[in-house]
Amino acid sequence: MNTVELVGDLLMLAGALAFLVGALGMMRLPDLYSRLSGVTISGAFGTALILIGLLLHQPSWPNLLKISLALVIQLATTAVGGSAMARAGYLTGSPQAEATLFDDLAVEEGQELDAEGHPGQSRPDNGS
Amino acid sequence: MTVKSVLKWILGILWLPVYLAYDLAVGSLRVGWEILTPGSQISPAFVEVALRCRTDFEISMMANLVSLTPGSLTVAARHDPATVWVHAMYASSHESIVRYVHTIEDHLLRATRPEGVPPRPEDLERDEGGQRR
């Protein structure tokens, strides 16, 4: 076992721990939005560490290409999924933590909700 | 477009992943520390941030980059005028979150716009507590 493989092992171990922390965060954090942030630790940080560790175990140009592609796609989908869940949670009125300081969306929602609808729902293609 | 601006643009494209990796690591460690230590120091808030992004690509990249960092999450986005609503776990003030999102935006626009980054708008509509005037 050489040094590069050892570093790879350590990165993968750190990635596994990141998954554990993310799982604990699901229980520890107070509301939906904070929990989604906690999941990002697993989905983005943990996965990135494990993939980089894997690359250090089998370093080659084709593997670099494959792992970079996997990393980019994983990070993009985690972010899109997180946003979609947060928005669905907000639109269906998921309770917020008591510590929440202010809510700019609620101010918007208190105003007229006629033609424009909720600000989060506007789309590039519906004119306005 | 001068040679200098093209060079800056290429540097911006190369620098964006580095900044993101740094941001992801720092955010993960911060939220991870919050999870593992007893007690709760989080002060979450939903913050409305006006963007300088114009194209669909820039706005969707912006929303995704904010979501990617643990501790901040895009809840809603609007196309015209470009705005994102961000849930932040550590909102000491309204200003700090706006500044944080604008920092990410600076790095993004440096990579997407060869002509350079427009200056940040002053957030004049807010007072110290983050309330509308």
Structure notes:
The complex is a heterodimer of chains A (128) and B (133). By secondary structure, chain A is mainly alpha-helical. Chain A has helices at 3-28, 32-57, 61-91, 104-110. Chain A has one domain (3-95). In chain A, α1 (3-28) packs antiparallel against α2 and α2 packs antiparallel against α3 (61-91). Chain A is elongated and about 55 Å long. The termini of chain A are far apart. Chain B is globular. In chain B, β2 (72-78) and β3 (83-88) form a beta hairpin. Chain B is α+β, with helices and mostly antiparallel strands and 133 residues long. Chain B has one domain (3-112). Chain B has helices at 3-36, 56-68, 94-112; strands spanning 45-50, 72-78, 83-88. The chains are: A mainly alpha (128), B alpha+beta (133). Chains A and B meet through α1, α2, α3 and α4 of A and α1, β1, α2, β2 and β3 of B. Chain B: Belongs to the CPA3 antiporters (TC 2.A.63) subunit E family. Chain B: Keywords: Cell membrane, Membrane, Transmembrane, Transmembrane helix. Chain B: The chain crosses the membrane at residues 6-25.
Radius of gyration of chain B: 16 Å
Radius of gyration of chain A: 20 Å
| Total helical segments of chain A | 4
What is the subunit organization of this protein?
A: heterodimer
Instruction: Report on the biggest sheet of chain B.
Output: 3 strands, antiparallel
Q: Structural class, judged by helices and strands of chain B? A: alpha+beta
Low-pLDDT sequence parts of chain B: none
**Average pLDDT metric of chain A:** 81
Write down the domain tally of chain B: 1
Which range does the strand content of chain A fall in?
A: under 5%
What structural class results from the helix and strand content of chain A? mainly alpha
Largest interface comes to: A-B, 48 and 46 residues
What is the count of helical runs of chain B? 3
Family (chain A): Belongs to the CPA3 antiporters (TC 2.A.63) subunit G family.
Protein name (chain A): Monovalent cation/H(+) antiporter subunit G
Keywords (chain A): Membrane, Transmembrane, Transmembrane helix
Pfam families (chain A): PhaG_MnhG_YufB
